[in-house]
Design a protein that fits this description.
alpha/beta; 6-stranded mixed β-sheet; Molybdopterin biosynthesis moeA protein, domain 3; 4 domains
Amino acid sequence: MALMPVAEALDRLLANVRRKDAEHLPLHNAYRRVLASDLKARRTQPPFAASAMDGFAVRSEDMIEAPSELTIIGEAPAGHGFDGTVGVGEAVRIFTGAPLPNGADSVLIQENADYAKGRQTLKALEPVKPGQHVRPAGLDFTEGQTLLAESCVIGPGELALAASMDYAQIPVVRKPLVAVLATGDELVAPGTPRRDDQIVASNSFGVAALVRDNGGDVLDLGIAADTVEAIGSAIKQALEAGADLIVTLGGASVGDHDLVQTVLKDHGMSLDFWRIAMRPGKPLMAGSIDSTHILGLPGNPVSSMVCGLLFMRPLIRTLAGLSLDDISDVDAVLGADLPENDQRQDYIRATLSQGPDGHLTATPFAKQDSSMLARLVQSDCLIIRPPFAEAVKTGDVCKILKL
């Protein structure tokens, strides 16, 4: 089977992926979720003309000249409006957020008033213009106005705004459930006894974190031994849990001990493609079991993470209703020479720096073995080298994927 180009594989992977349906959540549980539909304001804010300062509600026509003396006829704290009407030469003691009384059209701030508590009169020391220090009704928004758009991510400001719009709960996109299964007799969990011929499983932790970072929930299926029974039991558990995506780690090739693809087909998987023209990460597998997406990532740690970034991440983000715009590649210049490339698209780990001119410089590491996780953590980006690319020099423009 010929190796499939990365772009074609990604297009095929996402071709039939649809955003999850909506669920309604209380605001306290909606943080960082994706809004499933537009939200229109259920009220006008502020719902009345309100004082923007502590002071006195007055008629501006009484305040054309200063000083002027006014009679205090009442008080209006926030949450307790004054029921009467402000007449000629009158004022109401008012506090920030309180409704402006009938008859008044402006606020004299208390710093500009000669007033002592308990007195029934005040002396205005400054003139006041109509509407001064007053927040008109609807200054922020009006009932029926669309303020939060579908697909926006709910942050602190969006939560506060939704509450102000009078929503106790809002519609958000359901989180996709991603089942993660590591496979291999050679793997043991961190901190557990192991034989000399075994290694510590690491991929599932990074992949699970990548799932959560991109809007999904994780069902950890642990480590399955290289037997049809162990792998089949884990796949059955994922399907019964209603997983939207099953991600397997390792064992998807065609060696004698690579059973994942066989077991998945036994459970009804329709294989879409596998073996991608990329490095690291050639043995990538994609398919589906009914509505459940299947993604088989390579077993090598760096290959697994790179394929997770390139394929799993956009798949999960599409299911979760998140944009793909902020995970696209960008331009940089090379910090070292690179030789010509073969038929596989390379993803080269590199550091990233920014020069005085604002240009990004990507400097590749000399060693790129797909088992070197420490090197991945030290990297800021992946330099993308297309198939059959010619040799390039330091300072040449390249494409990078930021990490």
